[in-house]
């Protein structure tokens, strides 16, 4: 059976963020992930993790002004200094929280900037981040995201991510394979997972089209969970979905589909 981590940015959002750790543990999760820890005292998050015997498997690098619609700064040529400062901050927080890996969101491609410059900037930023992460024994992830949910997002497909990672050339840099985003952009879920298994550092899930829990849409999660076990994926799968009603009411998929 795959290992599932609760994404606390999206699950248990009926309660304040710092109370979601307890809710996750009470509902059988052994691990959690979330987008960003930076708005909360690191020691408070660590205390919640420890109190409820939870592992933190992932959080993101600082991603610009999220509330104003920014979705990462990794590819932005005019934000390199900010990106590097974010790498330092993320390493400090991840080290204190025990997170083994961090996700770098590429960001939206700004108008008037060439594809060549965006790629060059992203590759150079990733090389810098991977080198700094390696000193701290951390893994770097990059995540393709669909352009229906985030129009203009720079990184969209698994093949594009693999090509960029090949150019980066870091042995601690991997793809964060989000099943929902991959379904919307490319399909071929099982074949892609198998082909690039050694390049996938983390997975996430949601069903399509509404991005609700598994079993509510078109993705055959019963098959996929068996297939993920069959090919030997060793990592966690982050449950990054929008509960159709409440989180607890929708958690039955873990027993019916696994």
What's the average pLDDT?
A: 98
Number of helices: 9
In the CATH scheme, what's the topology name? Answer: TIM Barrel
Helix content: 25-40%
Count the domains.
1
CATH class bucket:
Alpha Beta
Estimated radius of gyration: 17 Å
Question: Got a strand count?
Answer: 8
Give the neighbour order of strands across the main sheet: 1-2-3-4-5-6-7-8
Q: What gross morphology would you assign? A: globular
What class would the helix/strand composition place it in? alpha/beta
Pattern of helices and strands: EHEHEHEHEHEHHEHEH
- Low-confidence sequence ranges: none
Distance between the termini: 6 Å
**Biggest sheet descriptor:** 8 strands, parallel, barrel
Strand residues, percent: 5-15%
The CATH architecture category equals Alpha-Beta Barrel
Give the full name of the CATH homologous superfamily: Divalent-metal-dependent TIM barrel enzymes
Account of the protein in words:
- With 258 residues, the chain is an alpha/beta fold.
- The chain has a single domain, classed as TIM Barrel, CATH 3.20.20.
- It is built from nine helices and eight strands.
- Helix 5 links the parallel strand 5 and strand 6.
